[in-house]
């Protein structure tokens, strides 16, 4: 497999980096955005951004959603569900059940 071509970019904040995809996010800015003390800090950037776009910032808010609801969000994949299940369980919560 040939090496992936990377392009040199500069974000609006002036960070310079190389990227091999057309995704516009700056890895330096993304690293700075990671919350240090919330459950969101334990998720991948796409899953975190998907929850942030839905204004989900606490486990209590997360418990109002079903797993099926979350999987419909752009950027959210099934790989994030086990971690969220455990975090909810540790807090005495669970995902909303579909009935």
Description:
This protein has five helices and two strands. Strands 1-2 form a two-stranded antiparallel ribbon. It is elongated. It starts with 6 loop residues before the first strand and ends in a 9-residue tail after the last helix. It folds into two domains: 1-33, no CATH class; 36-99, DNA polymerase, domain 1, CATH 1.10.150.20. By secondary structure, it is mostly helical. A hairpin with a 5-residue loop joins β1 and β2. The chain has helices at residues 27-33, 45-53, 59-62, 67-71, 81-90, and strands at residues 7-10, 16-19.
Protein traits:
about 100 residues, mainly alpha, DNA polymerase, domain 1, two-stranded antiparallel sheet, 5 helices, 2 strands, about 35% helix, elongated
Low-confidence stretches: none
The Rg value, from CA coordinates, equals 16 Å
User: What's the rounded overall pLDDT mean?
Assistant: 88
Which structural class is indicated by helix and strand composition? mainly alpha
Query: Strand order of the main beta sheet, please?
Result: 1-2
> What's the end-to-end separation, in Å?
47 Å
CATH architecture descriptor name of the largest domain? Orthogonal Bundle
Could you give a quick summary of the protein structure above?
Helix content is 35%, strand content 8%. The chain contains five helices and two strands. It has helices spanning 27-33, 45-53, 59-62, 67-71, 81-90, and strands at residues 7-10, 16-19.
